[in-house]
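Sample entry (97 residues):
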Amino acid sequence: MRSRRFDSQIHMEKTKHNERLNIFAGDHKKSQSTGYLENITEFDYNYLASITENFTGADIKKVFQIAINNYILGKLNNSVQNINLDQMIKIIHTFKL
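Predicted structure, serialized as tokens:
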């Protein structure tokens, strides 16, 4: 029988608060450099890191991908809004682990 992609489980360590904080800060900086999220306001990395305790780095990157997608869709629909802390929290709660 051929081994499949998800046949074995790999334990992933939980990220520490400072690691999550650095991921949020780093991804925000990268997103700003692309021009997609230049309108982010009221960004509290410490709070976001505290509410994402069970998130991996990939989960946090997904939060940014969703924010970018929302921003692009808003731009296409002529309803662009600044991305703020409340919107990021809503995104996080949509797939809270």
